[in-house]
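Appendix C reproduces, verbatim, an entry submitted by the partner laboratory led by Prof. M.T., so that reviewers can inspect both the input and the predicted structure.
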Amino acid sequence: MESNKKDQETAKQPKEEIKNIPSTIWKFIISIFSFSNDSSVNPVEVIDNIKKDIEFKGYNVWVLMCSIVIASIGLNVNSIAVVIGAMLISPLMGPIRGIGLSVGTNNFKLLIYSLINFGIATIVSILVSFLYFRIMPFKDATTEILARTEPLILDVLIAFFGGLAGIIAASRSDNSTVVPGVAIATALMPPLCVTGYGLATGNWDYTFGAFYLFLLNSLFICLSTIVVVRYLKFPLATYVNKKKERNIKIYISIILIIILVPSGMKFMEVFNKSVFTNTAGLFVKERVSTIPKIKILDTDFDYDARTVSVVLVGSNTISVSRIEELQGILNSEDYGLDNTSFVVIQNDEIENNTFTMDDYRMLVKEWEQKIIDRDKEIIKLKEDYSKKTDFNYDLTSVNKKLKLINEFKPLESFAASKAYRVDMTGNQDTTLMIVVNWSDSALIETRSKKLKNWIEINFETNNYEIIEKTK
């Protein structure tokens, strides 16, 4: 009898183990992704470390100013490497994390302290970048600057997950490998520099766009900090009543929505424009470019006017019925560009003037702009060519070398530049023109030969003309 019971219990064990497999797998997955029970997480130590980085005074302010100048130079010269270097040394994350920590732990005294230091850091950063761009003569809007003037919803995701990685790393004792990456990913420095650039150049669109991007990044770094602090159940500094806590959450949600909505609208606009352009390009490629004996001279995809325009040349033309058919295909489910006009300008229409004046103006405007752009490029190339020289010498270095030679100490001045030379037969070439002034005319004869040898060696050329005279 006992043996039968044992056999029954033994038979039940595999069944129970099979039933427990899903829960075992789930516990295993939870153990992989959970870090709340990690023994290396010390809330008190994490809070102390974050508090240390909040204050902006003395050392932190000077490091911030240095990083702002470096970032401004990087934006100015369009160097992403320099901008990254500035972000690595920037201490801006401190007060932003402090705001998130204070909200997450209901520490409203710390919140006020963090907001004050955040304001100081922001004002100092904008002021330094403003002074830099105000003083510097180089005020062209580089691609690095333009990239920080139109915030998108994707910037929110970068800031949130960058901040999330930062606070998760901060909750452990060793976060040295993560913090530099977070500083680069969240990109707090460049928008502040571009804000200063906008103020210095009087471009308010750049100013507000860049500052809005900075606020977005800061807000969602705070939000990610709040999420992790609450998840890790950090001790609350003060225990507020439920009504007050609910009101605070409502205020945070309202601020979040107010800041986020413009970014979402801008993202949808850019997204829809990109979809429109890509779909219109695909339509032209698949439906228009395949028509025999025609060539697409130009295309224009206007999202705001909802028009897809093509300029065609060649021995063949598209009939009106075919254009209407293509119009239907463009608006069909195949491409989905509803309420979009398909405009065709081709040989016979240009000759017979059957296209509308709006189409004509659009075509003329496009080609006028192309001519203007080309003229600007030609002017720039001419300017670059006029500045181009085959003789690139550092005269400061030349001056130092001449001073080291005793026989050349009576030299009053030394000048070198490119010169164009033409002989009486009409042959033209380029030569190095050197003008020297001696303190005494007698020195010209005694030291001229040695000076010529020195010029040939140091300038590495025999193609030069020298004019020697006394002062």
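The chain has a mean pLDDT of 75. Additional entries are available on request from the coordinating office.
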